[in-house]
């Protein structure tokens, strides 16, 4: 149900006062996603990692579009009543405009409506902007994964949100 609700729609971004298209990631998107991924992360996912999840029952991969350009993406693993946010990125020129917040809010609110109970993710310990964003969405730090980012030799913070009681999500 979550997949069908999110696979074709929009993400409203208040700062821009507009909607951006939201749809499932396709094989044709991988080149654009890969370019973005390598701009954003030293420990970037490979094309194969994105391709492996396309069409899988356990994964939901979405893109946000400004006309035909991919400006954001998210990969989520669905495990029973839990979501694991495995990867999320916003194009550098679209950062700090509220697109990442709007995308996550849309996904988490829809997951809550569909009965999902828990969302969790890992975030680089030095990524203060992302940590603040996740806290704004009702995530709390619940653990640490030592040396999770091997190339950078950096820990990840494990953050979780109890979706059904998260007052920061829209009803």
- Strand numbers in spatial order across the main sheet: 1-2-3-4-5-6-8-7
- Which CATH class applies here? Alpha Beta
Distance between the termini: 17 Å
Measured as a percent range, the helix fraction is 25-40%
- Strand tally is 8
Stated plainly, the CATH topology is called Aminopeptidase
Structural class: alpha+beta
**Average pLDDT number:** 92
Radius of gyration: 15 Å
Number of helices: 5
Approximate shape: globular
Unreliable stretches (pLDDT < 50, length at least 5) are: none
Fourth CATH level, the homologous superfamily: Gcn5-related N-acetyltransferase (GNAT)
Properties at a glance:
Aminopeptidase; 5 helices; 27% helix; alpha+beta; eight-stranded mixed β-sheet; globular; 171 residues
How does this structure look, described?
The chain has helices at residues 2-6, 30-40, 47-53, 99-113, 128-136; strands at residues 8-13, 18-24, 59-66, 69-79, 82-90, 118-124, 140-149, 154-162. With 171 residues, it is an alpha+beta fold. It has one domain: Aminopeptidase, CATH 3.40.630.30. It has an 8-stranded mixed β-sheet, with helices on both faces. The protein starts with a helix and ends in a 9-residue tail after the last strand.
């Amino acid at each position: 149900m979550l997949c069908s609700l999110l696979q074709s729609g929009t993400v409203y971004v208040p700062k821009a006062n507009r909607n951006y298209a939201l749809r499932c990631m396709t094989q044709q998107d991988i080149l654009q996603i890969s370019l973005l991924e390598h701009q954003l992360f030293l420990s970037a996912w490979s094309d194969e990692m994105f391709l492996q999840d396309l069409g899988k029952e356990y994964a939901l991969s979405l893109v946000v579009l400004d006309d035909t350009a991919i400006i954001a993406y998210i990969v989520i693993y669905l495990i029973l009543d839990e979501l694991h946010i495995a990867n999320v990125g916003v194009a550098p020129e679209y950062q700090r405009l509220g697109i990442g917040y709007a995308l996550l809010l849309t996904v988490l609110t829809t997951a809550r409506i569909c009965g999902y109970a828990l969302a969790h993710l890992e975030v680089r310990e030095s990524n203060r902007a992302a940590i603040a964003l996740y806290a704004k969405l009702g995530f709390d730090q619940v653990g640490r994964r030592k040396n999770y980012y091997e190339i950078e030799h950096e820990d990840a913070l494990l953050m979780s949100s109890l979706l059904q009681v998260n007052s920061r999500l829209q009803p």
